[in-house]
Amino acid sequence: MNLTEYIREKRKTKKILFMTHLVCGYPDFETNREIVRIMVDAGVDLIELQIPFSEPIADGPVILRANQLSLQQGTHVADCLSFMKEVSAQYPIPFLFMTYYNILFSRKVDNFCREAEQTGASGLIVPDIPLEEGAEYLKACSDFHLSPILLMTINSSPERLRLIAKAGEGFFYCVARKGVTGPKTHFTQQTIDFIQRCHKATNLPLAVGLGISKREDFEFLQGKVDIAVIGSAIIRVFEQGGYEALRSFLKGLR
Amino acid sequence: MSTDGYYGRFGGAFIPEILVATLSQLKKEFYAAKNNPEFWQEYVSLMSSYSCRPTPLTFAENLTRDLGGAKIYIKREDLNHTGAHKANNVMGQGLLVKKMGKSRVIAETGAGQHGVATATMAAKFGFDCTIYMGEVDVERQRPNVFWMEQLGATVVPVRDGTRILKDAINEALRDWSKNMDTTHYVLGTACGPHPFPEMVAYFQSIIGQELKQQMLAQEGRLPDQIYACVGGGSNALGIFTEFLKDKQVELHGVEAGGEGLNTGRHASRLSSKDGRVGVAQGYKTFFLEDEEGQMKETHSVAAGLDYVGVSPILAHLKETGRILFHAATDSEVIEAMRIAMKKEGLIPALESAHAFAYALQQAPKLSKDTIMVINQSGRGDKDIFTIADALGDDQWKEFIKQKAKSYESY
């Protein structure tokens, strides 16, 4: 079953799916392991594993610091690949890699995608590879059966949304506001208009992310999109209250 | 030279989707301006009334005589307003900001020169201004931070990553991806996503255009060699671009050799074996990165040269062989600076002193009818703390101690 089919199947019983995020090696892989278990137990439907990079330009302060601390502790790409292999074999939900293009480029895009497929990853999210630079990346994703999750943004024109729609697979990641990951997003009529523009451009499922941290956010998004993405908030909650806080936070969202 | 922002295999625009529309607007404005001959006239006239253009070409008579080889000329970018070539790019982009109708500018700065130049431009044109500066650089370049703030800019110390120039660029990109509707990012060097490398090189090319005219007027021919220091590459491209087609003119870029190319403590992306092709900060070039693509720490006595990447245009011209790249170490640079001060009464910035260091080593080996030009990209006054330390000047130390004491008694 491919990623799109998985999402459609799940949506038959759930109003909205959850995708969560963690930075590999932050605070360490042992903790990552436990966090993934808690996420799956709480009914999370998809998980992004971020391979840390020293220059994460699309990330705000929380994820930025997690990237840095992970690297300081000596996290290597190979460690993230083995972690992906372990959790994707252990749990029945799709896992995706999120990272920046230099991580792929450095390892040769082809090699990276081959390895990612072998570890059981379902797709890739690479925020600094716009369509214009994406030919090699998109081909490698297709060769190795990975869904390239492309971003649709609030300031992309309808023509551009159609181009993105043609190139992406799996689902689309709709960025509901300007800026980087972290700060709260206020959902307004503008958001609704934007989501409608995205639906018009594609029949594939839509995820909405950036600045989502509350039950109200999910309620707002229900019925409008297929997936709500929650990133920085997870790290914030865990840093403040550990596993217990994370468990009740995830439970409280549904 | 470029097709869609590529120079050979370098360049491009590796940016989040949220910035794609903003960069296309910038491209549109830039090409409209570039194709309008009146725009260049407007720019030249602004630079001659607000800065000190054309900057002089100084014949270094004493150095030429004492070294006994090539005839040495110095292009005096230090005489620009705010003391460096940075003003050229900043004022040019300022004109574009007015055309785009934006009200706020942001910039990264390493040494602080680009930050001061941007704050100056913002004050003149009435823009709000925020400058991102690595915390390490804020500490070592306090005088420039002082000036930026006096000029009305907000200086934000960047505490993430290695806390130097590259981290300031990341932070500026993050700000821009949120505030692009009102804000223009005045990138300070010929790096970053297309069209920045081309645009910055275009504004800086005024240096080489002047030099060519001055050379023809003073010597009746083109120079044989031109030397420039290379951080991001804007002053080098500024002086080289006009001569790229004049194949008889040798072009030499001098990078920061730091403590030596074999020590790992340097910032030589093109002249050392440590440079590796990668993609970061919006473009593809040689970076000082590890085998997994993580950026490494760099080192130079000159804050303006310790950048982890380098202009994609220079990376390409290195591969074609049109420009030759070398490195000068921290100690060679201090020595060159001492010589320039004593022999010619010139105070080059530590950055510019890299070009002096390498060029002055070559001069004695060259014949008397060889003409070389060194680009003095900035003035060294701003580096007084670093230079006084490097020279180990005891009276300066005493002065600082007294000064500190006088503040304690408040």
Could you walk me through the main structural features you see in this protein, from its secondary elements to its overall organization?
The complex is a heterodimer of chains A (254) and B (410). Chain A has 254 residues and is of the alpha/beta class. Chain A has a single domain, classed as TIM Barrel (Alpha-Beta Barrel), CATH 3.20.20.70. Chain A is built from eleven helices and nine strands. In chain A, helix 10 links the parallel strand 8 and strand 9. In chain A, helix 2 runs parallel beside helix 11, helix 6 packs parallel to helix 7 and helix 8 packs across helix 9. Chain A is globular and about 45 Å long. Chain A starts with a helix and ends with a helix. The model of chain A has no long low-confidence stretch (mean pLDDT 95). Chain B has two domains: 158 residues, Rossmann fold (3-Layer(aba) Sandwich); 217 residues, Rossmann fold, CATH 3.40.50.1100. Helix content of chain B is 45%, strand content 17%. In chain B, strand 9, helix 11 and strand 10 form a beta-alpha-beta unit. In chain B, the strands form four sheets. In chain B, strands 3-4-14-9-10-13 form a six-stranded mixed sheet, with helices on both faces. In chain B, strands 7-6-5-8 form a four-stranded parallel sheet, with helices on both faces. In chain B, strands 1-2 form a two-stranded antiparallel ribbon. With 410 residues, chain B is α/β, with parallel strands linked by helices. The mean pLDDT of chain B is 95. The termini of chain B are far apart. Chain B contains 16 helices and 14 strands.
Give a quick summary of the entry.
Chain A has 254 residues and is of the alpha/beta class. Chain A has eleven helices and nine strands. Chain A has one domain: Aldolase class I (TIM Barrel), CATH 3.20.20.
Topology (SSEs and partners):
The complex is a heterodimer of chains A (254) and B (410).
Chain A: H1 3-11, E1 17-23, H2 29-41, E2 46-50, H3 61-72, H4 77-90, E3 95-98, H5 101-106, H6 109-118, E4 123-125, H7 135-143, E5 147-148, E6 151-153, H8 158-167, E7 172-175, H9 189-201, E8 206-209, H10 215-221, E9 227-230, H11 232-253
Parallel strand pairs in A: 1-2, 1-9, 2-3, 3-4, 4-5, 6-7, 7-8, 8-9
Helix pairs in contact in A: 2-11, 6-7, 8-9
Chain B: E1 6-7, E2 10-11, H1 20-34, H2 37-50, E3 57-59, H3 61-67, E4 71-76, H4 86-100, E5 104-109, H5 113-125, E6 128-134, H6 135-140, H7 142-150, E7 154-158, H8 165-179, E8 183-185, H9 196-204, H10 206-219, E9 225-229, H11 234-240, E10 250-258, E11 276-280, E12 283-287, H12 312-319, E13 323-329, H13 330-344, H14 350-362, E14 371-376, H15 384-391, H16 394-408
Parallel strand pairs in B: 4-14, 5-6, 5-8, 6-7, 9-10, 9-14, 10-13
Antiparallel strand pairs in B: 1-2, 3-4, 11-12
